[in-house]
Design goal:
Layout: H1 2-19, H2 25-31, E1 37-41, E2 52-53, H3 59-63, E3 72-76, H4 88-99, E4 104-109, H5 111-114, H6 118-143, E5 150-155, H7 157-168, E6 175-179, E7 202-206, E8 227-231, H8 242-252, H9 257-261, H10 263-277, E9 284-287, H11 291-295, E10 307-309, E11 323-327, E12 338-346, E13 353-365, E14 369-381, E15 384-392, E16 399-406, H12 414-418, E17 422-425, E18 427-432, E19 438-443, E20 448-451, E21 457-461
Parallel strand pairs: 3-4, 3-5, 5-6, 6-7, 7-8, 8-11
Antiparallel strand pairs: 1-2, 1-4, 9-10, 9-11, 12-15, 12-18, 13-14, 13-16, 16-21, 17-20, 18-19, 19-21
Helix pairs in contact: 4-10, 6-7
The structure holds 2-acetamido-2-deoxy-beta-D-glucopyranose (3 copies).
Keywords: Calcium, Cell membrane, Chylomicron, Disulfide bond, Extracellular matrix, Glycoprotein, Heparin-binding, Hydrolase, Lipid degradation, Lipid metabolism, Lipoprotein, Membrane, Metal-binding, Nitration, Secreted, Signal, VLDL
InterPro entries: AB_hydrolase_fold, Lipase, Lipase_LIPH, Lipase_N, Lipo_Lipase, PLAT/LH2_dom, PLAT/LH2_dom_sf, TAG_lipase
GO molecular function: apolipoprotein binding; heparin binding; lipoprotein lipase activity; metal ion binding
Length: about 475
């Protein structure tokens, strides 16, 4: 009898010990359903799960050296075929710790639920989101860990997990970054089922693989945050084409084929990593109604929050409506480019309209130059003004001069053989997106004759530049309106 009673007491004590201090049977009940795991990574070992924070077990926080006073990033992966973390995970962890050395970077491990058939995993986002919300609420309840210190980063399906988590916490968390949120089953879903601006104080989204019809697109096409950035138009990313794929296979073998399939989708993560690494040189994105208007260079304005940094250092601008922003990038890190709007009026004596014209532009600046940037003007017509976007991968400094060349068509054409098309150009107007500087360039001969198939024509800063005609101390150069 006595032995039996002792055994019962001993068992109870052991159970209490195992559950740890601060854990009552009720709280354990709340957390029992949590299947997701919360792995606190360290700057020294960013690629391994060495310590798990267990909701309901307060001592797991001390055990894992969770820093209560600094911010916390929760990284949420997406659907997985292999059931393993993808190679970007340690890269993102590493970049977060480099940028915020005192922070807590936690990987939300929901791999078992993420490796089902896609629709099943997609449906699991609800449960995983609930797990994440319980975890955040628990931290707040246990030791007043502030919701303002929480930043969720979700990739693909993980972005919707983050959204659902954010909608369920007791108070709004600080920020959610959606990295190419998954499209299938979410494109037409109601806001509570997916990532939406209501899910955090600030929601920013990168869309990198929104290709095809909306129901087929890997990444969600509609804007789902306060700020939605569509790098390179959001459809497809440079360096992810088939030619590049074949080159990589030749170099590295078939091991990376998986990587190539996801290239554009995963680019969202690498762009974010880039923003963590190159603190002093954030890529700039510009608000624009349409991708087409951006391609014409019409949206390089920074007034009224129309431009913003892409990635970590974004300004938290909350407009009433979703705002779509665009930028160009390089095909690999560092991704930043420098955007220019170029505006030209084509004078001529005869009415001529030509479509799809190949041109080359060279930009010479104070620190560097970029020659023969090829672009296609969809149309050139006599006595009309055209605006287009060009960008450089290098920072050329302040633009000093530029040249234009009008190339021959790639096919032989008799009409071009007999008639040489020439347009006269008086001025070339340029606006630099990154510096917001406006400049006007003139031909040294007064008027430049741009001939199809002819030589490049050079433009230098205009003398008696209309821009200089401002009253001293008045409007800044960028404010002066230049007419065509
Ligand atoms: C915790 O983070 C704070 C900054 O938020 C830092 O000052 C402190 O040194 C960190 N503590 C430890 C033990 O790393
Ligand atoms: C284009 O404009 C110029 C001057 O503004 C004029 O001399 C010329 O005749 C116009 N060309 C055509 C085709 O109308
Ligand atoms: C060129 O076209 C415009 C409008 O289409 C017309 O007003 C003008 O007279 C034309 N000029 C010539 C030289 O044919």
């Amino acid at each position: 009898m006595a032995w039996g009673a002792l055994l019962v007491v001993l068992c109870l004590c052991l159970r209490a010990l195992a559950a740890g201090p601060g854990t009552t049977p009720e709280t354990r009940g709340i957390f029992e359903g949590i299947e997701s795991k919360f792995s606190l990574r360290t700057p020294a070992i960013p690629d391994e799960d060495i310590c798990y924070l267990v909701p309901g077990q307060k001592d797991s926080l001390a055990h894992c050296s969770f820093n209560h006073t600094s911010k916390t990033f929760l990284v949420i992966h997406g659907w997985t075929v292999t059931g393993m973390y993808e190679s970007w995970v340690p890269k993102l962890v590493d970049a977060l710790y480099k940028r915020e050395p005192d922070s807590n970077v936690i990987i939300v491990d929901w791999l078992t639920r993420a490796q089902q058939h896609y629709p099943i995993s997609a449906a699991y986002t609800k449960l995983v989101g609930k797990d994440v919300a319980s975890f955040i609420d628990w931290m707040e309840e246990q030791f007043n860990y502030p919701f303002e210190n929480v930043h969720l980063l979700g990739y693909s399906l993980g972005a919707h997990v983050a959204g659902i988590a954010g909608s369920l916490t007791k108070k709004k968390i600080n920020r959610i970054t959606g990295l190419d949120p998954a499209g299938p089953t979410f494109e037409y879903a109601d806001a509570p089922m997916r990532l939406s601006p209501d899910d955090a104080e600030f929601v920013d989204v990168l869309h990198t693989y929104t290709r095809g019809s909306p129901d087929r697109s890997i990444g969600i096409q509609q804007p789902v945050g306060h700020i939605d950035i569509y790098p390179n138009g959001g459809g497809f990313q440079p360096g992810c084409n088939l030619g590049e794929a074949l080159r990589l296979i030749a170099e590295k073998g078939f091991g990376d084929v998986d990587q190539l399939v996801k290239c554009s989708h995963e680019r969202s993560i690498h762009l974010f990593i880039d923003s963590l690494m190159y603190e002093e040189k954030p890529s700039m994105a510009y608000r624009c109604q349409t991708k087409e208007a951006f391609e014409k260079g019409l949206c390089l304005s920074c007034r009224k929050n129309r431009c913003n940094n892409m990635g970590y250092q974004i300004h938290k601008v909350r407009t009433k409506r979703n705002s779509k922003m665009y930028l160009k990038t390089r095909s690999q890190a560092p991704y930043k480019v420098f955007h220019y709007q170029v505006k030209i009026h084509f004078f001529g004596k005869e009415n001529v309209t030509k479509t799809s014209q190949p041109l080359l532009i060279s930009l010479y600046g104070t620190t560097d130059e970029r020659e023969n940037i090829a672009f296609i003007l969809p149309e050139i017509s006599t006595n009309k003004t055209y605006s287009f976007l060009v960008y450089t991968e290098v920072d050329i400094g302040d633009l000093l001069r530029l040249s234009l060349q009008w190339e021959k068509d790639s096919f032989f054409s008799w009409t071009e053989w007999w008639t040489s098309f020439t347009f006269d150009i008086h001025r070339v107007r340029v606006k630099a997106g990154e510096t917001q500087k406006k400049m006007v360039f003139c031909s040294q001969d007064g008027v430049a004759h741009l001939q199809k198939g002819g030589e490049a024509v050079m433009f230098v800063k205009c003398l008696g530049n209309p821009v200089r005609r401002r009253k001293a101390g008045h409007k800044p150069i960028s404010e002066i309106k230049t007419d065509p």
